[in-house]
Amino acid sequence: MKNRFLYFVFLLFLQISFAQNNMVWQGYFSYNDIKDVSQSSTTLFAASENALFSKNTSTGQLKTTNTIDGLSGQTITSLLHSSTANKTLVGYENGLMIVINEADGSMLNIVDIISKQLPANLKRINHFMEYNGIVYVSCDFGIVQFNLATMLFGDTYFIGNNGSEISVKQTTVFNGFIYAATIDGIRKADSTNKNLVDFNQWSLIASGSWSSVEAFDTQLIAINASGNVQKYDSATNFFNGLFQLPQAAVDMRATDNYLMITTPTTVSVYNKQMGVVRQITSSQIVGTTVSFTCATNIDDTLYIGTNENGMYSTTISVSSAIENTMPSGPSRNNIFAIQATTTSLWAVYGDYNLFYNPYPLDTYGISKFSETGWLSIPYDKVFGAKSISRITVNPSNEKEVYASSFFSGLLKIVDDVPKILYDQSNSGLESLILAPPNPSYIDIRINGAAFDKNGILWVTNSLIKNGLKTLDTSGKWQSYSLDKILLASSNTNFARLSIDKNGTKWIATDRDGLIGFNEKNNVFKKITIGADTGNLPDANVRVAAADNNNQLWIGTTKGLRVLSNVGSFSSENQLTTKPIIILEDGLAQELMYEQFITDIVVDGANNKWIGTVDSGVFLVSSNGQETKYHFTETNSPLPSNTINDIDINSVTGEVFIATTKGMISFKGTATGANEDLNNVFVYPNPVRPEYEGTVKISGLLNKATVKITDIEGNLVYETTSEGGTIEWDTTAFGKHKVASGVYMIFISAQDGIETKVKKVMIVR
Fold first, then answer.
1. Distance between CA atoms of 187 and 181, rounded to whole angstroms?
2. What CATH number did the domain enclosing 35 receive?
3. Which terminus of the chain is less hemmed in, N or C, by CB atoms within 10 Å?
4. What whole-number distance in Å separates Cα of residue 645 and Cα of residue 663?
5. Which domain holds residue 27?
6. Please, which pLDDT band fits residue 347 given cuts at 50, 70 and 90?
7. Which residue, 250, 279, 299, sits at the end of a domain?
8. Are 209 and 225 in contact (CB under 8 A)?
9. Which residues form the PorZ N-terminal beta-propeller domain (predicted)?
């Protein structure tokens, strides 16, 4: 009990911490996968995979809630808004329950179900039903009572045979009795019975597997697993068939005037006489293929959730247009790769597994975020490009973008419009060859891509002999054979490709370590495992990033290595890497030991952002000796510890982190250094009492001296910039918060020639 209490306090503390620090975090979530809906008389509430949104039907105002606000990154399975308590309950796949107080937006994590001594796969929350101030929580093990007034759980009902666990899909109250639809019958109990923890108080009134049960006006309606809709006869205590659905139902719910039954392809609205007043089919949604998940209504408006296309609305009483109504966002939460520019962010979704297998092939298209919002380039506009795994923007012309498909080739996009798909028929790209050969099978696996300083695009083409390709500014293609440097080029997959300041191309491979290539002398070199052949911890390399000191940071599936100088490529026959050794609790440790590293990005201060496959994100200092941050699901708004990609807007310093369950950003100090001090900016200014973050001073030269004094000239802070931004925690050298007043900021370049003076007001 003590441990449970401490865990609860810990989670509550995390929610408070997230709320206080959310000014440095931003969420970029998809609201397309609608899991459940609820409503009040004026507001629609909708749950997507791990985020919520609400829409005021009077004003049309949309409000979003996600991990930045304190939600979990786990998958949501159920939602209930209680108008009487003005609270919204969110249920999760793992049994977590979050209660949102709509009056002030505060959240409370309820972990009682998680803490139950039951198998983890039985803790899923399937449904909420409110009755007389008590919420009946249907789970895969039974039913739990939750009191909305005390915010405490009550009794747990194990209502299976002989008191065993049983998956309860939905409950309702009808004529004073609780009815539970389970995978093994419909069970009934008197709601006034004080001993419902005794399974003998629950009687089995219908056998078989049931998906739904709902009280509607003077009727009790239930649906079995095969889609047969039945009505309860109180006199005989039996359910009688009404009609057969063409598919199994995925949702049924009643409001004051209507009953709505949802299947993947139809939403049917019934009146109190069980007559159909409106039916929507998936074929009525023009231009896309949809699968319905749930539906509800507010007055005469019907709201329909889908599993990939968000929320639709239409009227019930008359046939009217079906409109999409949801917040803008990326197409899905599992963003595989991103590319940030100074003005936009590109995202792609096509992926491959740990072994570079792209199957099943994805058809999710491409997304772009800019100051105008989200733009979606759907699959039907990308010339059939499947499993798009990387996105590369031309640094000399941000209107020109290339999307790498790990099956279909290379897609060129100009002014946000796909122009051409390069494949084996119109370019130097090549398809892999099956064994035995099948000439009709085309599979062109393009992944890593980067522009060099001459505007030439370099791309990797996996599982072929000539695995390195170029596309120059005139449209000419060229190929380079990797056959001599690789053990088996036709079996080698390529990850990311990067180019250092000397023009050397660094190619990450799945079995041959890291390949370096410079076309000036047509030189290839390999860094792989073994003390005499490179000293990598594993030959499966995922990323290589050159930092501002010309060191090459190499991420593998089993840890990190650093090449001390990329210039050694031209002077040394065998390039050798070293681990970074740090002291942890007085013991020498290897930085990122045995970690599966998915990405490494260097920020403007030469710090390294390191993504991992299951341990979140690390921010380490320029030399790796200090871990500045280690962000995970439990100590930050990260929705998942599986990091797919990281990128940085070099002007704003916003660090974008793409995970398997959503993308967030961290607004730190990762900006590049400026050439002068003409654009120095201090924010926020003034600093108001409610602000809990740091003051940021951006637009700095590298290694600029920054001194902050009070109005009387007393020094309270001093530092030297690394990159274009520094932070001040508004304390006097870290000892105590400074008092209210105006503070002077004196900035000077390293040589002392250029200076700037700024002011910031602190209001306590």
1. 7
2. 2.120.10.80
3. N
4. 9
5. 2-250
6. very high
7. 250
8. yes
9. 44-203
Query: Which residues make beta-bridge pairs with 64?
Result: 53
Residue 206's closest CA among 181, 174, 178? 181
The count of other CB atoms within 10 Å of the CB of residue 62 is 15
Domain end: 225, 250, 275, which one? 250
pLDDT beyond 60 at 325: yes
pLDDT of 377 strictly over 60: yes
Gap between the Cα atoms of 581 and 639, Å rounded: 30
Structure tokens at 426: 């119109």
Q: Is 350 helix (H, G, I), strand (E, B) or coil?
A: coil
User: Is the residue at 190 inside a domain?
Assistant: yes
Distance of CA 73 to the CA centre of its chain: 8
Instruction: Please report whether residue 399 resides in a domain.
Output: no
User: Residue 711 domain-assigned?
Assistant: yes
Asked whether residue 103 carries a pLDDT value surpassing 50, the answer given is: yes
Give the alpha-carbon dihedral of 26, 29, 31, 35, to 10 degrees: -110
| Res 753: pLDDT | 87
Scanning 330-427, the segments in alpha helix (DSSP H) are none
60 within domain boundaries: yes
Write the burial class of residue 511 (CB in 10 Å: 0-12 exposed, 13-18 middle, 19+ buried): middle
Residues in the chain: 764
As a whole number, mean pLDDT of residues 59-64 equals 94
Number of structural domains in the chain: 2
Q: Can you give the CATH number for the domain in which 722 is found?
A: 2.60.40.3110
Q: Is residue 598 very low, low, confident or very high in pLDDT (cuts 50, 70, 90)?
A: very high
Cβ neighbours, 10 Å, residue 120: 11
- pLDDT, position 437: 78
